[in-house]
Design brief:
With 171 residues, this protein is an all-alpha fold. The protein is built from seven helices and no strands. The protein folds into two domains: 1-75, Rna Polymerase Sigma Factor, Chain: A (Orthogonal Bundle); 100-171, Arc Repressor Mutant, subunit A, CATH 1.10.10. The chain is 73% helix and 0% strand. The protein is globular. Mean pLDDT is 80; it is low at 75-88.
């Protein structure tokens, strides 16, 4: 179980960071997803773990976003001003020694992060699970709790939007 959680930890954090746009919230979401996964699904077959974990992760993201909506709607006058910090600066990842290449990759990654925020939640899910996590269509459908056809539709639409938005940025 520990090896599995370590293997999905970084990807889960990146997904949560894209969805929440806040470092601490992303960490909280991943931690809560891992705890719930261990509590409820540790006895399931190992091959079912990945889609189940990502289903729990997206449930936690949805719960956080609903909480934020309620807080913003009812308590916006109590909340401090918008935080202008960039949570992407602290993202985990490899660094290269070539400054030009690092700049191109960083610019492309930032453009991808911004483009992902413009996608619907379902399109984000489909893209991140299929493209980044390399889950099969069936595993993605399980994680998203929808049909395989719906996964294909959301993934295709996400790719269409991303190709349109990233044409100038992607190396």
């Amino acid at each position: 179980m520990d090896a599995f959680l370590q293997s999905v930890e970084r990807q889960a954090y990146r997904i949560a960071l894209v969805a929440t746009r806040h470092h601490e919230d992303a960490l909280d979401v991943v931690q809560e997803a891992m705890l719930r996964f261990v509590e409820k699904y540790s006895k399931k077959p190992r091959e079912a773990w990945k889609p189940l974990f990502f289903r729990i992760l997206y449930n936690q993201i949805t719960t956080l976003q609903r909480r934020r909506t309620v807080q913003h709607k009812w308590f916006s006058w109590l909340l401090p001003g918008k935080d202008d910090t960039n949570p992407i600066e602290a993202r985990p990842g490899s660094r290269t020694k070539e400054p030009e290449h690092a700049t191109r990759v960083n610019t492309a990654y930032n453009a991808l992060e911004n483009a992902l925020t413009d996608l619907s939640l379902r399109q984000q899910q489909a893209f991140l699970l299929r493209g980044w996590q390399e889950l099969s269509v069936a595993e993605t459908a399980t994680a998203m709790q929808c049909s395989e056809g719906s996964v294909k539709t959301h993934y295709s639409r996400a790719l269409e939007v991303l190709r349109e938005r990233l044409g100038d940025h992607w190396p």
